[in-house]
Amino acid sequence: MSTLKSSELRTVDVARRAGYSVQQIRNLERDGVLPAATRTASGYRVHGETHVLSALAYRALAAATGPVEAKRIVRAVHARTVGEALALLDAAHARLTRERTDLELAKEAVASIAAELIEDVRPSDSMGVSELAAALGVRPSTLRHWDAEGLAVPDRVPPRGTRRYSPAQTRDARIVHQLRSAGYRIDPLRALMPSLRSGPGREEAGAALAARGASIAARSRALLDASVPLHSILATRQEPC
Questions:
Q1: CA 229, CA 217: separation in Å to the nearest integer?
Q2: Do the bridges between strand 38-39 and strand 127-128 make them parallel or antiparallel, or are there none, so unpaired?
Q3: For residue 24, is pLDDT > 90?
Q4: Is-contact 41 1, C-beta < 8 A?
Q5: CA distances to 15, 20, 24, 68, 102 from 27, in Å
Q6: 190 phi and psi angles, rounded to 5 deg
Q7: pLDDT for position 108
Q8: How confident is the model at residue 240 (pLDDT cuts 50, 70, 90)?
Q9: Going from the N-terminus, what domains does the chain have, and what CATH number goes with each?
């Protein structure tokens, strides 16, 4: 059986084939993402196909899971703890599945909540921080944070400035809650919420959620891309998982 170490490659060759700079390849070797290169008598690094495959696997995994998790997976492969590497890959797939599920729920919720008509509002319809927090299943401090960030801003009742959420403000909090659950960060939400409050913002929310879906799909594809070089490395090994 041929091995992945059969060819002799320079660092620059590995860099070109993996789409990295020479320094990045050296950094990946230093971090254990690439196996340690052999050295010639004059001290030059000599690499093999396994170094190219490791760099390609890391590149795809970093796009799918982030650099920290990507390093853990590739290091586990090189440490011959294949069971750990497979478990980490399974966990990455599971996270993406959860994100997809949350995203679909957010799409349905935002469409439903944003379309609600609010009429004949009475003072008794408003909610305090603790009441709304309990209804949403979040901490009161979370609502205060959303208030400070301008996401779901309640009225302030004198003389103490107690927060009270009108039905419209409660709707804002519900939308924020769904979008945060779907993975949206504070800054994009801050830009999105004014248009949602005005009514036509449902289209913008849909576009934002579609962008989130595209991001999840790209990470899924990257995880799939990583499987090819990882399989090539593992296929040469016979050790049990």
A1: 20
A2: unpaired
A3: yes
A4: no
A5: 11, 11, 5, 14, 36
A6: -60, -35
A7: 76
A8: very low
A9: 11-94+221-234 (1.10.1660.10), 96-217 (1.10.1660.10)
